[in-house]
Write a structure and sequence with these properties.
Elements: E1 6-10, E2 19-23, H1 39-48, H2 73-97, E3 101-107, E4 113-120, H3 121-129, H4 158-166, H5 183-203, E5 208-211, E6 215-222, E7 233-237, H6 245-254, E8 257-260, H7 268-276, E9 280-282, E10 294-298, E11 303-306
Parallel strand pairs: 6-7, 7-8, 8-9
Antiparallel strand pairs: 1-2, 3-4, 5-9, 6-10, 10-11
Helix pairs in contact: 2-4, 3-4, 3-5, 6-7
C-alpha cells in the first residue's frame, strides 16, 4: 500500500470469506455516492432503488470520504438530474456534427412500440463494437468519451452512458434492473438487437449452433486441450474434437458454454455437448475475441453480441 491509500474490509454475504480491497485516494466521490457521508449507506440506497448491482455487504472503515465531498441529501436528486442533462446535452451537441442520430424503437414483450429514442449514432457504435477487433480492423468510430464511469451504477461503462444520456435518458431510467418488461430491460433488448445487427454487418459475425438453445452471458477465455472452465465462463476452443472432452466435462459441471472455431453438429464434442446440455456454438472468427470480454451467446438467433 502507498501512503494515502485506504484499506477497506468488505464483508461478503452467503458465508464467503471477507474480501480486502485497497482504494487509492480520490479527489472527489463517485457520482452515485452523492448525498451520503457513509459509503455503505450509498450502497444500500443503490440496492434499495433496484439498480442492477450485486449486494456485497458492509464496508468498514470509510475514512476516505469526507462530508464536504457530498451534496446535502435534499440536493441529491436535483444534482443528479442536472448532471444527467448536462452530459446528455454535451453528447447531443457533438453528435450533431459527428455521426448524427438514429431512431431506436423500444418494444415491450408484446412487440408493441412503447417509446422511440433519438440515439446518437457514434457513441452507440463505439459501445456496440467494444470488446471486438473493430479497432484493429479500422472500423471503430473516432468518438471522444463525454461521460465518466460510475454514473448509473458502480463500475458503469462510460461508452454505454454516452449514448444513454445522449438519448435523453437519465440514471433513474436505468433503475429497476433488467426484468423482462421493465423500461431498462426493453431498452437494453432493443439496443442489443441493433448492436448485434451492426456487428454482423461490419464484422460478419454469424455463428452456428451445435448444441443448446436460449441465451448465455459470460466472460470469454481461450482454453487449450485439458484445461477446465469456471462458472460463467465461455470457453473458446480451436475445434470440436475429443481432445477437449475434459473442457466440455467441466462446462457441464459448472454450467459454462463453448465456442469452437471449426466443427459441425456431427463432431464428437458437439454430440457430447447435446447429451450434457451444454450450449455450444461454432464461429470461425472467434479467434478475434479477447480474453475477459463479456459476451452473450444467442442460440435462438445464431448470433454473438457484446455487453
Amino acid at each position: 500500500m502507498d501512503e494515502g491509500d485506504i484499506f477497506f474490509n468488505l464483508k461478503v454475504p452467503h458465508g464467503k470469506s471477507p474480501t480486502n480491497v485497497v482504494f487509492g485516494r480520490l479527489d472527489e466521490a463517485p457520482p452515485w455516492m452523492m448525498g451520503f457521508t457513509d459509503p455503505q449507506e450509498a450502497l444500500d440506497d443503490l440496492i434499495a432503488a433496484d439498480r442492477p448491482l450485486d449486494e456485497v455487504g458492509h464496508v468498514a472503515n470509510p475514512r476516505l470520504y469526507k462530508e464536504d465531498f457530498f451534496a446535502k441529501d435534499e440536493e441529491r436528486a436535483r444534482h443528479h438530474d442536472e448532471r444527467d442533462a448536462q452530459f446528455g446535452e454535451e453528447v447531443r451537441k457533438r453528435a450533431e456534427t459527428d455521426g448524427g442520430f438514429f431512431t431506436l424503437d423500444v418494444k415491450n414483450v408484446n412487440n408493441d412500440i412503447i417509446r422511440q429514442l433519438r440515439v446518437p449514432t457514434m457513441p452507440f457504435n463505439v459501445w456496440a463494437l467494444s470488446g471486438t477487433n473493430a479497432r484493429a480492423m479500422g472500423l471503430m468510430p473516432d468518438w471522444q468519451l463525454v461521460c465518466p464511469g460510475d454514473l448509473k451504477m458502480p463500475s458503469d461503462n462510460p461508452m454505454h452512458s454516452d449514448w444513454w444520456f445522449g438519448a435523453g435518458l437519465n440514471a433513474d431510467d436505468y433503475a429497476g434492473g433488467f426484468e423482462e418488461d421493465s423500461l431498462a430491460g426493453n431498452i437494453s433488448r432493443a439496443a442489443n438487437n441493433v448492436a448485434r445487427d451492426l456487428r454482423k454487418r461490419l464484422l460478419k459475425w454469424d455463428a452456428k449452433v451445435l448444441s443448446g438453445k436460449g441465451l448465455y452471458f459470460g466472460r470469454v477465455r481461450k482454453v487449450h486441450p485439458g484445461e477446465t472452465l469456471k462458472e460463467n465462463e465461455i470457453g473458446v476452443i480451436s475445434h470440436a474434437g475429443p481432445e477437449y472432452a475434459t473442457t466440455l466435462a467441466s462446462a457441464a459441471k459448472v454450467g459454462a458454454a463453448l465456442i469452437c472455431l471449426t466443427g459441425g453438429p456431427l463432431a464428437h464434442l458437439a454430440t457430447l455437448a447435446r447429451e450434457d446440455g451444454v450450449l455450444m456454438m461454432m464461429w470461425e472468427d472467434a479467434q478475434h475475441l479477447q480474453n475477459g470480454a463479456m459476451v452473450t451467446l444467442d442460440a435462438d438467433n445464431c448470433a454473438i453480441f457484446f455487453d
